[in-house]
Amino acid sequence: MYIKKQRLLTPGPTPLLPAALHAMMGSDIHHRTEDFRKLYKQVLLDLGEVLGTSNDVLVLVASGTGGLEASVQNFFSPGDEVLVCSAGKFGERWVELTKAYGLKPTVLSASYGEAVQPEAVEQALAKIKNIKGVFVQASETSTGSQHDVEAMGRAVKKTNAIFVVDAITGVGTMPLDIDAWGLDVVIGGSQKSFMIPPGLAFLSISEKAWSLASSSSEPRYYFDLKKEKKNAASGESGWTPNTSLLLAFAEALKYIKTLGMDKLVANAQLLAKATREAVRELGLELFSSAPGSSVTAVRAPAGVDSGVIVKEFRQRFNAIITNGQGTMKGQIFRLAHLGYFDFHDLFAVIAELEIILAAQGLPVRFGCGVAAVQNVYAEVALSKEAALA
């Protein structure tokens, strides 16, 4: 009660992998030396392996939004017709980015808490000629929703358009078969499932996408992906890299390779499932009709501002969770599951939520939410132990 360790329980930045944090202390490496080239080549090699793709992978010094912007700059030209799937604040970011570079987006919208359906994408592709690209969030963390990128990919794959996927919170929380599903440009960020601080964006890029790069006339300088690809072949970045984050990234990639990307995804999915069971047991409602595994968005109880719940987590337990964004502020709170989270974290979060709800005068049977989490854990862990016995 008197000692309060800070807990970061947000969908980004996420808790840091200790080995990655320690690795950052060795950042006194010059970026035009063989030591750095060896590091950089290994990071790119491991990143491609972890993502499960044979496509080119590149790393940029930027937040994930820099990767989004680079994908618009490098593969399109002003006036290009594109489809944008928008079901939350980050879908709206795609709309803003495409308009900023003079593209002509047709926006396929879904209400907050819902997802754009693959059938809508297929119908739009059939109706609108000369579509050059389709943009979507794999995981829309502003609402806790998830898109069916596999089905969307099948539809896009039949056309000349490229499929550009913001997977910043999708990587590591949901299956993403980049090559088989036709995900032409996939963007990720360092501060999510990769368990290191913000500051690196990465992209996987298909041959289909590269074929558009040669005709793109958008202005670009720092985010010139062809230049990055050329430099990466010799183990260098186009510009001064963030050496400390690359050292951390190298350790995070080693950890994920040892763990297995499938296990990282399964971990997020189990935590999300347990959270959904717990909040229902507590009489709360999920916000999303298509919930994903990066974050669970929960409607605040009637008469309670979600900001109060966020504040209570911080003041009582020094735990940081997130409020809703935009018009969702005050309506929902969000609990994250991606990256370096485990069941120990979740047991505590749900126990704290029970206390916070009780403090607001709501009827709470202490332990019922925690028991729901325990049941999910036991169902998986104890059955595995029995199978091995």
Please provide a brief summary of the model.
It contains 14 helices and 14 strands.
Q: Strands, helices and their partners?
A:
Layout: E1 7-8, H1 18-23, H2 34-51, E2 56-61, H3 64-75, E3 81-86, H4 89-100, E4 104-109, H5 118-127, E5 131-137, E6 139-140, E7 145-146, H6 149-157, E8 162-166, H7 178-181, E9 185-189, E10 200-205, H8 207-213, H9 225-232, H10 243-259, H11 261-281, E11 295-299, H12 306-317, E12 319-320, E13 322-323, E14 332-336, H13 343-359, H14 368-388
Parallel strand pairs: 1-12, 3-4, 3-5, 5-8, 8-9
Antiparallel strand pairs: 2-10, 6-7, 9-10, 11-14, 13-14
Helix pairs in contact: 2-10, 5-6, 11-14, 12-13, 13-14
Write up this protein.
With 389 residues, the protein is α/β, with parallel strands linked by helices. It has two domains: 7-13 and 261-388, Alpha-Beta Complex (Aspartate Aminotransferase, domain 1); 18-259, Aspartate Aminotransferase, domain 2 (3-Layer(aba) Sandwich), CATH 3.40.640.10. The protein has helices spanning 18-23, 34-51, 64-75, 89-100, 118-127, 149-157, 178-181, 207-213, 225-232, 243-259, 261-281, 306-317, 343-359, 368-388; strands at 7-8, 56-61, 81-86, 104-109, 131-137, 139-140, 145-146, 162-166, 185-189, 200-205, 295-299, 319-320, 322-323, 332-336. Strands 2-10-9-8-5-3-4 form a seven-stranded mixed sheet, with helices on both faces. Strand 8, helix 7 and strand 9 form a beta-alpha-beta unit. The longest helix has 21 residues, at 261-281. The protein is globular and about 60 Å long. The two termini are 40 Å apart.
